[in-house]
Structures are given as C-alpha cells and as structure tokens.
Specification:
It contains two helices and nine strands, in the order αβββββββαββ. 14% of the residues lie in helices and 37% in strands. The protein is globular and about 45 Å long. It has one domain (2-155): Immunoglobulin-like. It has 170 residues and is mainly beta. It starts with a helix and ends in an 18-residue tail after the last strand. 31% of the residues are buried. A nine-stranded antiparallel sheet has the order 1-2-3-4-7-6-5-8-9, with helices on both faces.
C-alpha cells in the first residue's frame, strides 16, 4: 500500500510544472496532508540532468526523477522513475561522486507501475547521497538496455523531510 501512495505522488510530481520552493537547488519539496492521519506526507525530488532518447512507443523528451519521501503511515522511501518507459531492474548500480559504484536492491510499485523502482536500503542510500554532490543511477529499461541517470544532489535539505513529530513536537 505504501508504494501505491508513492507512485501516485510520483505521478503528481511528474505532471506538475512547479512544486515547492524556489531556491538555487534543483531539489523540489512538497508537503501534502495524508487524509487518513491528518499528518504531512513530505517529498523531495530532483530531475536528472541528462535526457534519454528511447524508441517508439516511449520516444521524445524523457528524464529520470530521484524522489525521497517521508510518509506518516508507510515510513521513508527512495525511488527512481522515468517519465516514460518500463524499468526492469531488480538492482540499480549507484555511484556517489567519484566513489566506486555500489549495487542497491530495488522493489516494484504495489500499484503495478513499471516506470518506477524503489531503492530498498533507504538509510544507506540517503547517508551516502547527503555527502555527495553528484549521483549516477544505472538501471535497465525494457527494449532500451542499461541507462544512466545523472543527478545533481547538491543543496539537498534533509530537514525538509522531517515533521515536528520526528523531533518531539506535534
């Protein structure tokens, strides 16, 4: 169920023209109310610097999105998505700045959406990402093979995902 809500939020992010704050960072932040708990669902997302040129039926402008989410009922998650196409990877290779690449297991969206995968080890991924300025994520796209998305993650505000209840408030 958690992944259904994340996939819905990801679709909303991709459809929006402007979300959240206007700052010098490429990150976009959003907070929406979870109707079931009246608590905030917080999202931080950044588009890839590079684009992809896929063949029919996914041809045209295509980017990847890296999204981090804090949900009051489903917890923390990290996801990588493409606007059009099907990610078939069970693992993604990730490189933080000039470090050696590492693999992360991925999970599928419960909604059945195939354009998004969820990075299983959120804590390890975010810990490494916070120290980096550049993150490369390699994944496999159906009919297109391996693709690498390049993200500028500098300026990420980890406090954007914290709610008052995380620090003892209400």
């Amino acid at each position: 169920m958690r992944k259904i809500y994340i996939a819905i939020a990801l679709a909303a992010f991709m459809a929006a023209t402007t979300i959240g704050q206007t700052t010098k960072t490429a990150w976009k932040y959003e907070a929406v109310r979870d109707e079931m708990t009246d608590k905030q669902i917080k999202t931080a997302a950044v588009e890839s610097e590079n684009t992809f040129a896929f063949k029919f039926p996914y041809n045209g402008y295509n980017k990847a999105i890296l999204m981090l989410k804090m949900h009051p009922r489903f917890g923390k998650s990290a996801a990588v998505a493409i606007i059009r196409g099907q990610i078939t990877s069970k693992t993604v290779m990730v490189r933080f700045d000039d470090e050696a690449p590492m693999y992360f297991a991925t999970g599928e969206a419960e909604s059945g959406r195939t354009n998004v995968v969820f990075i299983e080890d959120y804590a390890k991924f975010v810990s490494r990402m916070r120290k980096a300025t550049k993150v490369l994520v390699e994944f496999t796209v159906y009919g297109e093979g391996r693709q690498t998305a390049r993200f500028n993650v500098s300026g990420f505000d980890p406090f954007s995902l914290i709610t008052p209840s995380d620090v003892g408030g209400k």
